[in-house]
Structure formats: structure tokens, C-alpha cells
Amino acid sequence: MRIHVLEDYQELSHKAASFVASQIILRPHSVLGLATGSTPRGLYSHLIQMEDLDFRGVQTFNLDEYLGLERDHPHSYYYYMQEHLFRHINISRAGIHIPPGQPDDLEQACREYDRAITAAGGIDLQILGIGHNGHIGFNEPASRLKTATHVVDLSPTTIEANSRFFSSPEEVPRRAISMGLGSIMRARKILLLASGGDKAEIVARTVGGEITTRVPASLLQLHQEVIIMVDKEAGSQLPRGQDGSE
Ligand code: GLP
0.90 cut: is pTM over it? Predict the structure, then answer.
């Protein structure tokens, strides 16, 4: 794992955007795994500002989607991605993949999503945020983790954390569809972003704690090519020598 501790959220977003842009420039047909949540918003906004960056050959696969929300619901991840990235860049519609929030057949939708990832040649660069409980995508802490795309019952802490985007916790969907740990771990490179003091403990456990399905992000310690970018607050509990400060 390579860890970069940046001064603040602005710097973190800027550095992450440069990293993603280099990937696209070096490999114009890159397959990107994309995350939602508040953390990658700055990264997306920097990418949008890079007017020469050409997304025409890029394919994207989002990590997850709430189940039960219409695509155009303002809290669906489909809507989020349109608003924060896709409608501002020259990516082709055919290159965009987001798990469906209202599929007729859930099992079939999961299998089709995995087949599409495989058909694209797998993910070159997976962008990840992290939940306070160590979830990545919507892979919640559990005694066993799923490798393929699957349906998830969201944990009470995730519902609570994500209720800040809704008018009340009751409105947060209880279930989601999420890429599995297998697809994430098969990505050739992984870029995990975290910002703010409330993520400090889980960042430290992800980087240096026990590797356990109870902290899904800790499995990233087993991956060859993980880059972690955090701001000072999120990096504040990293042991000395592990904080790679810049
Ligand atoms: C959600 C998403 C995750 C995201 C996490 C953290 O639950 N499914 O992909 O990483 O929240 O979100 P935030 O960046 O807002 O803290």
C-alpha cells in the first residue's frame, strides 16, 4: 500500500484527479470503477475542469446502487453520477455502467453486471471511498463476504450515516446492489480516498489492523497495487512511518 497524506480535502481531490487523469491519458480505453458518497465529489469536479481530458474511450462501472429508487430519484447513485460527472464530460453513454436500482430479476441483474465487467476486460483503476465501519462499495462487515455482485441489507450504521443525504433515516433504502469483493480485488489498481477526522480510526484499521471480513477494507492489504490518499484529519491515527506525509 502506498499512502499519501495531503494537507486538506482540496489537495486530496486535486492529487486524486491527477492520478485518474494520468490513467486515462496513458490508456485512453481504461476501465474505471467509480464510487459515490461525498468523498469523491472533489475528484470529479477537478476531472470536469480538465477540459482536454478525453473520456470517449473510457468505460466506467459504478460500485453500487440503492434498490427501489428510480434512476432519476435525486438520491439514486445514477442521478449522482450524472450530476457530478457524466453530464459534464464526453464519455459515451454505452461506456457507462451502473447497477440497476429496479431490476425485474435481481439475480439476473447481478450476473449481467459481472459479465459486463469481465467483457470489458476487468477494471483497470478502481476508485473507493470508505464507510465508517470499513465497508467498501456496500460490502458491509460480515462473517463472510461476497465475491460477485450481490444484494445487500444495509447495516444500521450505514443507514444512519447515509441519512444525511435524505430528509430522514426512514427514507434511506434498506437494500442495495453492490459489486463484490472479488471484482474490487481483481482491479489492477485501487485508489482509496478518505477525508475528515471521523474516518481516522477506520483508515488506521484498514492500513495496519487485522485483516478481517469484519473490516472489509482491511482486505486491501492483500492487494498489490493500492494507493491510499487521505487528508491530514483522516490520516491522524496512522502510526508514524505509515503516514507517508507530503
Ligand atoms: C456509501 C457508498 C460507499 C462510500 C461510503 C462513504 O455507503 N456506498 O461507496 O464509500 O458511503 O461515503 P462518504 O464518502 O460520503 O463518507
Answer: yes
